[in-house]
Structures are given as C-alpha cells and as structure tokens.
Amino acid sequence: MELAAAMVLVLTVDHNTARQETGSHGISYIDYIYFCLYFMIITVVWNALVLSRGPRIALIEWRDNLAPKLLYWPTLAFLLFIVTAATFLAGGG
User: DSSP code of 77?
Assistant: First the structure.
C-alpha cells in the first residue's frame, strides 16, 4: 500500500507539472491519460485489498491472481484507446 501511495504522489506531481507546462485551463487530452493511470492504481490497490482481507472472489483467486495480472495491460490499453478516440473524434485534439 505504501508503494501505491508513493506512486499516486509521484503521478500527482507529474500531472501538476504537465498542466503547468501546457498552460491549459480546462481538461486536456494529457489529463485524461493521468486519470486512466489514477484509475489503474486504484484498481491495483483494490485487488490487493481483496486478496489480503476482502471477501473470497473466485475470479481474483483463480490460479494465484492470474486474471487480474492478465487483464492489467489490456485494460489500460483499452482505456487509453477510448480516451484517444473520444478526444480526437470529438475534435478536441
């Protein structure tokens, strides 16, 4: 859990630096990427909590947590694809 807290801190500082560098006043494309990363960190922490203390969920405990391990990168790639498609197809480039 301490590592996740450190990652959120580093990501927040980097996110703040990126916002200052771009000078954007609203939510830009780069912000959505950081939101996806925040979501993935929260999901990993939730998975760790369920494994250690939470209720028994068969999909998470299946083959020593294999399903969440296999779904991490496809989930992140799908989120980034959706953000990219939504941003650039809507003309928000």
Answer: H
Residue 24 backbone zone (phi > 0: left; psi -120 to 50: alpha; other: beta): beta
pLDDT digits 0-9 by tens, 17-58: 999 998 888 889 999 999 999 999 999 999 999 999 878 888
State which amino acid sits at residue 58.
A
Look at residues 59, 33, 41 and name the one whose alpha carbon lies nearest to residue 1. Answer: 41
Both structure tokens of 86: 């939504």
Q: Report the alpha-carbon distance of residue 53 to residue 50 in Å, rounded.
A: 6
Q: Which of 1, 54, 11 is nearest to 31 (CA)?
A: 11
Token pair listed for 69: 């391990």
